[in-house]
Amino acid sequence: MNRLECLRERVDALLLPITDPEERRCAYVHLYGVSQLCVLLAAKRGLATDPAAAAGMLHDLAAYTDADPREHAGRSAAMAAPLLEGLYSPEETEQIVTAIARHSDKQSRHEPPDELLKDADALQHWLYNPSAQLSPHAAARCRATLRELGLPTDEAE
Ligand SMILES: [Fe+2]
User: Fold this and answer.
1) Ion ligand 1 contact residues with beta carbon within 5 A
2) Residue 50 burial by CB count (10 A; 0-12/13-18/19+): exposed, middle or buried?
3) Taking a C-beta distance cutoff of 8 angstroms, is the pair 60, 70 a contact?
4) DSSP labels for 120-148?
5) How far, in Å, is the centroid of ligand 1 from the Cα of 70?
6) What is the whole-number distance in angstroms between the Cα of residue 121 and the centre of ligand 1?
7) Residue 86 Cα, ligand 1 centroid: separation in angstroms?
8) Over the stretch 25-81, which tens digit does the pLDDT of each residue have?
9) Which domains does the chain have, with CATH numbers?
10) What is the pLDDT of residues 76-110, one digit of tens each?
11) CA dihedral 37, 39, 43, 48 (to 10 degrees)
């Protein structure tokens, strides 16, 4: 089992006990979806794919395990460090935890691994339901990412 599979086992162990099946489904769809989009965007941008996938898996964890989305970025970052222990280097862990802590700040520009997680997060929401209303910042990120991938942007208005 490689380290990403190990990490996903640790995350699954926290998601499986979520009692509300709808909440549990949303957690799986969103965290695995963002993780996969992180790999896609990391490959496109020449960034490390595996730590990007890890950041996606962990970025909203506290929002689901606590059933409370308020200020979840900091709480998810705090949960991430021990889950990464023994799998990711201190440098990788620092990068992943920082990206998670910053991911709700979609209006600001941070480092490339941070921006990657924000873009993957916004894009997963749009892919899940293209008809749903995104925040203006999330919609702008989606359009920019679709352009970057060579796709038309009219749908993500
Ligand atoms: Fe998210």
Assistant:
1) 60, 121
2) middle
3) no
4) HHHHHHHHH-TTSPPPHHHHHHHHHHHHH
5) 12
6) 5
7) 25
8) 999 999 999 999 999 999 999 999 999 999 999 999 999 999 888 899 999 999 999
9) 3-156 (1.10.3210.10)
10) 999 999 999 999 999 999 999 999 999 999 999 99
11) 140
